[in-house]
Design brief:
Length: 89
């Protein structure tokens, strides 16, 4: 039998999922706002890396999208300077 505390935790978790789903659906309805390069970067990151990116963006006063765009630009610059990074490893 669940305790009141377990129920409250489950309820909060459910609302977080509902809110995240609503935000995702709203953003996807607006169309892709990221460049193809930033979309590629976003797709290559783990959920934990995305969480860290978002926290870092918040501290720097950037949106998640701006941080992804900046990361894509940084990666492109590194590839330009050092060649294709994935071929070197």
């Amino acid at each position: 039998m669940e305790t009141e505390k377990d129920f409250q935790i489950m309820q909060r978790s459910t609302w977080k999922v509902v809110a995240a789903t609503a935000i995702t659906l709203t953003l996807s309805a607006c169309g892709p706002s990221l460049s193809p390069e930033a979309q590629e970067v976003e797709g290559s990151l783990t959920e934990r890396q995305l969480e860290l990116l978002e926290r870092s963006a918040d501290r720097r006063g950037l949106t998640r999208e701006e941080a992804l765009e900046q990361m894509a630009e940084d990666y492109a610059e590194m590839e330009q300077r050092f060649g294709n990074l994935s071929d070197q490893f």
